[in-house]
Automatic annotation (TrEMBL):
Domain of life: Bacteria
Chain residue ranges for the region called Disordered: 26-51, 351-372
Pfam families listed in its UniProt record: GSDH (PF07995)
This protein's UniProt keywords: Signal
Segment forming the signal sequence: 1-24
Protein name in the entry: Glucose/arabinose dehydrogenase
Domain Glucose/Sorbosone dehydrogenase, residue spans: 61-353
Organism this protein belongs to: Curtobacterium salicis
Length: 372
């Protein structure tokens, strides 16, 4: 039994993909060989796009999964999936170990996964001996000297497997903690409201079930998911989630409380007449494997593993997309807003499924331009 601690539906439309990368050099070591992106000529007001040459923020990471900035300039925390280390990336580009999350059982896609910061606490999603779990750690010290303090388990015994572990956690604009839980290989459980497999969960920062969740007494926020790995919100509160499909279609969904997104009855679009919510955009699985997601301005940026590309999707036209850095950096796991009007994205070539290049894995930074 799972223990909980007490203390825009739209039809899928065709993808409009515009390849905007240049400088196809494999040399990532310096500005002269760095891939570049150019602002699209038709960038609408409020939309955001990469514009300029990339630079490496840090290199030599082993299977990085999640990155959260601490709010102190370029200082950030990074999770390493296999070693269960939380690293601090300091403003000068150096790394130091903040701590090792105890009891992490790495295997396949499991291990130390999502991170989130809230009120000076670090929230961690990881795979333990008895399944996946979400813990809250006191984050002690300050920039350059952070340490992991005491841990409190918020929810555990979440479904786990060597694949489909979900793992993304994020705080919404309502101050609640959202967590994606994969179907853990038991696809039928995604349709079972009483199972936490194949769900997006919503909890208070203390691990309680909010009174306004759609199913009384349940942490379930939405169901019918296969393996959500990206969560984010636009300025108007719209919640977006990126999701791995199986053989046919990967998805970008707009998440509404209590809604059912169809897996395994439906993969991709075609479920509305059966009471399921269709994705606002879908891709062939070979072209996507959408992982981390970040909303910056009026653009949803999506990191893609199998597709080896960064996509930008307009919030007000989510059935379209632009592509950046296609094939330049290999697998891309995570994307987030960087400091000083930049975008960061995280490669994932050392996790056993990629083809590592010199310096992999890395966090990459690129300047951003906002349409006006």
């Amino acid at each position: 039994m799972t223990r909980i601690r007490r203390t825009v539906a739209a039809a899928s439309v065709a993808l409009v993909a515009l390849a905007l990368t240049a400088c196809m050099s494999d040399d990532r070591s310096g500005p002269s060989g760095a891939p570049r992106a150019s602002t699209p000529a038709d960038l609408a007001t409020g939309q955001v796009a990469p514009d300029g040459a990339t630079t490496d923020v840090v290199t030599g990471l082993e299977a990085p999964w999640s990155v959260v900035r601490t709010g102190h300039g370029a200082d950030a925390l990074v999770s390493l999936r296999d070693s269960a280390e939380v690293l601090e990336l300091t403003a000068d580009g150096e790394t130091r170990t903040v701590g090792i999350v105890p009891g992490v059982q790495h295997g396949g896609e499991g291990g130390l996964l999502g991170l989130a910061l809230h009120d000076d606490d670090l929230f961690v999603y990881s795979t333990g001996e008895d399944g996946n779990r979400v813990e809250r750690y006191d984050l002690r010290g300050s920039a350059g000297s952070y340490e992991l303090g005491d841990a409190t388990t918020l929810i555990d015994d979440l479904p786990a497997n060597t694949f489909h572990d979900g793992g993304r956690i994020a705080f919404g604009p309502d101050g609640m903690l959202y967590a994606s839980v994969g179907d853990a290989g038991a696809s039928e459980d995604a349709q079972d409201q009483d199972s936490l497999a194949g769900k997006i969960l919503r909890l208070t920062p203390d691990g309680d079930v909010p009174d306004d969740n759609p199913f009384p007494g349940s942490p379930v926020w939405s169901l019918g998911h296969r393996n959500v790995q990206g969560l984010g919100w636009s300025a108007d509160g719209t919640m977006f989630a990126s999701e791995f499909g199986q053989d046919r279609r990967d998805e970008l969904n707009v998440i509404e409380p209590g809604s059912n997104y169809g897996w395994p009855e439906v993969e991709g679009s075609g479920g509305e007449d059966r009471g399921f919510v269709d994705p606002v955009q879908q891709w062939a699985t070979d072209d996507a494997s959408p992982s981390g997601l970040a909303v910056v301005g009026d653009t949803v940026f999506i990191a893609n593993l199998q597709g080896r590309v960064l996509r930008g999707v307009p919030v007000d036209d989510p059935g379209t997309a632009r592509e950046y850095f296609a094939g330049e950096y290999g697998r891309i796991r995570t994307v987030l807003a960087g400091p000083d009007d930049t975008l960061w994205f995280v490669t994932n070539n050392t996790d056993g499924r990629g083809d590592p290049g010199a310096g992999d894995d890395r966090i990459v930074q690129v300047p951003l331009t906002t349409g006006s």
